[in-house]
Amino acid sequence: MKDKSKGSIDAAKHMPRYDAGRINRAVEKANRDPAFIDYAVGQLGGLQFPAFKHKILDHARSIGADQDVVALFESLNGYMEFRDQYHLQKALQENVAAKKKEFQISDETRENPNVRTRLTTADASIKEREAVNESEERTDYPEVTPTAMSNFVCDRCGKQFQNQQDLARHRQFESGGTVT
Length: 180
Fold this sequence. Notes:
Residues 152-179 form the C2H2-type domain. The chain is mainly α. Helix content is 43%, strand content 2%. It has helices spanning 20-32, 35-42, 53-62, 67-74, 85-93, 97-103, 107-111, 126-130, 164-175, and strands spanning 152-153, 160-161. The longest helix is centred in the N-terminal third of the chain and has 13 residues, at 20-32. The protein is extended and about 75 Å long.
């Protein structure tokens, strides 16, 4: 009989869920052959998106996909929901060195970005910065800063809310209806 006291230490061997060696070989194959990712993603023709990793793996196994393709899908992040095949393809390309370099920002671009900038100061109005001439004026909405909060006010009691959903819920409560 085994000793189950606090002083005994046991070890139990378990099998890992995924074979790391096989996954690494599949990622290396994708690095050597960029068409392999296209082939793997093409295997998922009948899969309903959005899909998580486990759904993608189940589909790949059900269609009898190549073991390298299944291993490549095992390298995916299990917490991410993939919107479509393009999103999945971009996620798989994150491990491909050539694609990483293609999508990276160069040091020169990082230091000297080619972007349009405009002078902004806290005391200047949008009209002063962007109007074509002094008489130009927009009448369809008043000038409000982008950081200004919107207040939604209950017309019965005057209480303020930060969003329309809270105001609608409050109105239901005030009218005696069921609040959802």
